[in-house]
Amino acid sequence: MRKTKNAMTLMEIIIVIVIIGILSMAGMVGYRQTVLRARDREAQAMLRLIKHAEEVLRLEAGAYAACASTAACNVTLRLNLPDPGAANATWLYSVPVATANNFCAQAAAGPAGQGTGFSIRRNNAPGGIDQQDPVANGCP
User: Fold this and answer.
1) 3-class DSSP assignment, residue 22
2) HSE-CB for 68 with a 13 A CA cutoff
3) Strand pairing partners for 106?
4) The pLDDT of residue 83
5) Exposed, middle or buried: residue 23 (CB in 10 Å: 0-12, 13-18, 19+)?
6) For the chain, how many structural domains are there in total?
7) Per-residue pLDDT averaged across 87-105, rounded?
8) How high does pLDDT run on average in the chain?
9) Would you call 15 helix, strand, or coil by DSSP?
């Protein structure tokens, strides 16, 4: 009589565990890259929002406004940017350069963020720079 095999051998179990580990590591790398891209796109979208708010303020007050922190930008530009005091704050926003004709807004990595940061500029002077999309650097 021949015995039927109803259980897996130790070697088969080890092979299955190794394959699951390899697949999960590949998934984690892809997930992390997706999260970082999403955070970068969040910063770029918020900088576009700041740019539009600065344009509205210039139409109302005749000049762009500087703000040194995210909280100050929320008040000055009447925005609701993500709370910089939160431990999971990904980006810190500011407008360090602002005059009657130009401004430069920037997003710097916050406590929970990674990356070099982004900036967007507007210069209404003849021959001035008008960036439509944020670029990967900070304000001068």
Assistant:
1) helix
2) 0
3) 94, 119
4) 79
5) exposed
6) 1
7) 86
8) 86
9) helix
